[in-house]
Amino acid sequence: MAKVIPTVDGIPVIPISAPRPPEEVDRKPLETAQDALGSSPPSRLGLRISAAWWRSLQYVGMTMHFLAPPRPPNQSFTKTIPSTISKTKGSFTLQFYTPAGYEQATTRGGTKFPAVVNFHGGGFTLGSATDDARFARFVLEDCNAVFVSVDYRLSPENPFPVAVEDAADALLYVIRFAGDLHIDPFKLAVSGFSAGANLALTAPLCLAEHLKTVRASGLDVPAHCIRATATWYPTTDYTVSRAVKRANSVRPDQTLPDMLTSLFDASYLHPPSLKLAHPWLSPSKATDEELAEGIPERVIFYTCEWDMLLKEGELFAKRLGSAPINKDVRYKMIPGVPHAWDKSPDPTKLPPGAEELYRECCRELREAFEKD
Fold first, then answer.
1. Whole-model pTM?
2. Closest C-alpha among 214, 106, 229, 113 to residue 169
3. d(CA 9, CA 200)
4. Is 335 left (phi over 0), alpha (psi -120 to 50) or beta?
5. What is the pLDDT of residues 263-291, one digit of tens each?
6. Which of the four CATH numbers 3.40.50.970, 3.50.50.60, 2.30.110.10, 3.40.50.1820 does domain 7-11+32-370 have?
């Protein structure tokens, strides 16, 4: 097998030092962001400068990724919406990709389409809503659904919980304006990759909590149903240190290097007192009741064999499918690939197996939409 270089949204990242031996790793659970980052984390200004550099590399990598045939679709239109859930006020953009027949529906009316609300990867620090356009093509063609990709606000400028709240706000916007958008509010799903896969699990939890507050205040929320979540190689437990996760990997040399994961964690995990067991951060730490109520009925769950996140993903998928939560979990571990292998920056060909798995995932989504 040819050597596979780990990538993050199109950026090749080569580890510059060997991981620590498993016996030398401190396996004590982390409680706060300070436990994860140490007593002298980088300055917020330094993080912004570093993030800007990596974002420029990511832009080049994704540009190369999109050159491989077949070319992905372009978005049909965008909507910039104000934040309503987050205490950090601002706005963010939704990118809409629409299936065949959508334009006719906007003029003639009547037809309502399912919708998949998607969250991109990049450690909550990099990336943009266009990064998953290749996956969008299969949603449009195989599910005949609208693909709504979310440009949630990034860290370090906007650390936790802004990304989660923006993701929940995006869902709330689609629910509230489903009629104007020609979307069936009873046929919704969420999806995400890497950091976005975490949001595909945590945004429904955040939304469920927000809706309780809204309804308690006497306000009306349109009836809706989020039928499925498709989560691709997610982070699910921040109480486990990166060193432990690397030590648990079957290929530590293929995991993301410390220089990049340290940037992601220092950017997103703020302030130092932040509790890492917060369910919007570490969904595996949510209660059974929170997961049973907030997570959609069908969970399409992918992990990567060489990923440092494999073990926590396997454990969480098993928990979601077991009593008392009892979700309909469709789990698959992808053998012989590192984290985010499907975002390879090779302009000559697509990553092996990516399109087949995208199509498989969309079959599961379509089945969830069609289920009575």
1. 0.94
2. 214
3. 17
4. beta
5. 999 999 999 999 999 999 999 999 999 99
6. 3.40.50.1820
Residues found in the chain: 372
- The 3-state DSSP class for residue 93 equals strand
C-alpha 8/C-alpha 123 separation (Å) is 9
- From residue 71, alpha-carbon distances to 65, 88, 211 in Å are 9, 37, 39
The single-letter code of the amino acid at 341 is W
User: Does residue 247 sit in helix, strand or coil?
Assistant: helix
How does DSSP classify residue 74? P
Which residues lie across from 77 on neighbouring strands? 96
Beta bridge partners of 82: 91
Q: Which helix (H) or strand (E) holds 332?
A: strand 328-334
Kindly state the tokens that stand for 15: 């580890």
Taking Cα atoms as reference points, which of 11, 168, 187, 36 lies closest to residue 115?
187
Q: 38 in the Ramachandran plot: left (φ > 0), alpha (ψ -120 to 50) or beta? A: left
Tokens of 343: 């975002």
Return d(Cα 163, Cα 151) in angstroms, integer.
9
Q: Which two tokens stand for residue 259?
A: 């220089």
> What span, in angstroms and rounded, lies between the C-alpha atoms of 132 and 116?
12
Q: Quick one: CA dihedral 36, 284, 364, 120, positive or negative?
A: negative
pLDDT tens-digit map of 92-129: 999 999 999 999 888 777 789 999 999 999 999 999 99
Amino acid identity at 266: A
- 195-216 vs 162-176: helix axis angle to the nearest 10? 60
Taking residue 112's Cβ as centre, other Cβ atoms within 10 Å add up to 17
CA 14 – CA 161 distance, rounded (Å): 30
Q: Which residues contact 133 (CB under 8 A, 6 or more apart)?
A: 66, 72, 73, 74, 75, 97, 149
